[in-house]
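FORM 12-B: Structure-to-Sequence Request
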């Protein structure tokens, strides 16, 4: 496996687009200036990859933070995600334009389907996902999206998409951290040439208090957060840690001066359930199941 060696290293997507190997996540980062200042601080501390979503409600501030940071747009890798209420071809096309407007950018580096439509949501789930994806493909071909992918997709949703897709998804962004790795999905997605990205790589904080993980991290003279980020890196996964504090943003990316040994990698891969968000596509909150209206 090709393990990244520095914060400035890149993954290369199936279409050749380069992705900075650690991203800055903004899920649950509030407005009122917080997101704007966090994004600016993250960029000023070396992050070049920012991840947001329409449903986070903070795209405007993410865009403002990027502008404030004073780094050229083409040096930033910017991801947003399509929300479940916008499924279907026409709404998807409009959703791309809405996110571009919110962020005040001409293009996105990556746009992801946030959640698949599933059988429980509609017997036509395959067609609905296929039509959404057709919108993605057309916006990709139009140059508004440099790369396209999915999020929270499992094998059956990906295989269903392949039945009609002209462009295969290049990324699958899923929850991944010690205590919840979905490792079958990781291996399947990687075998399909997708880059796997980790949301909540720190288990949204829950994992950070675990004493067994603290003991492993201490062996390397690292924090549990650094152990978690490094764990993703060693699995060939792109982690998206988030923090509102500059010192934690910085330390979360300082993971290239140590290596987790094989025994500890196995322990982390086989860790008991911990910090799982509870979100799964087949069992998601009601609004995440909304069919095309
Ligand atoms: P804070 O913003 O106060 O730093 P995840 O990325 O898995 O969703 O986890 C994010 C959570 O983890 C946030 O609550 C964040 O809080 C916290 N966090 C991020 N980095 C660290 C760190 N290095 N040490 C402790 N907590 C952290």
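FORM 12-B RESPONSE
SEQUENCE OUT:
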């Amino acid at each position: 496996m090709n393990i990244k060696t520095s914060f400035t290293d890149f993954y290369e997507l199936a279409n050749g687009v380069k992705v900075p190997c650690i991203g800055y996540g903004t899920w649950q980062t509030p407005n009122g200036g917080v997101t704007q200042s966090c994004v600016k601080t993250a960029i000023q501390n070396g992050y070049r990859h920012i991840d947001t979503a329409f449903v986070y409600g903070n795209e405007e501030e993410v865009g403002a933070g990027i502008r404030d940071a004073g780094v050229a747009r083409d040096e930033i890798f910017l991801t947003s995600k399509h929300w479940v209420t916008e499924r279907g071809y026409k709404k998807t096309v409009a959703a791309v334009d809405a996110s571009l407007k919110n962020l005040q950018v001409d293009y996105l580096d990556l746009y992801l389907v946030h959640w698949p439509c599933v059988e429980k949501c509609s017997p036509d789930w395959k067609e609905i996902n296929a039509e959404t994806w057709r919108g993605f493909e057309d916006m990709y071909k139009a140059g508004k999206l440099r790369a396209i992918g999915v999020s929270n997709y499992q094998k059956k949703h990906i295989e269903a998409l392949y039945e009609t897709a002209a462009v295969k998804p290049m990324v699958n962004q899923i929850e991944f951290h010690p205590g919840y790795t979905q490792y079958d999905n990781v291996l399947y997605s990687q075998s399909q040439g997708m880059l796997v990205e980790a949301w909540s790589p720190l288990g949204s904080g829950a994992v950070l208090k675990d004493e067994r993980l603290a003991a492993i991290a201490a062996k390397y003279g690292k924090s549990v957060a650094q152990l978690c980020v490094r764990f993703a890196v060693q699995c060939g996964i792109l982690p998206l840690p988030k923090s509102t504090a500059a010192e934690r943003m910085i330390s979360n990316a300082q993971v290239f001066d140590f290596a987790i040994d094989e025994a500890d990698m196995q322990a982390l891969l086989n860790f008991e359930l911990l910090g799982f968000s509870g979100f799964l596509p087949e069992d998601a909150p009601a609004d995440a199941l909304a069919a095309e209206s």
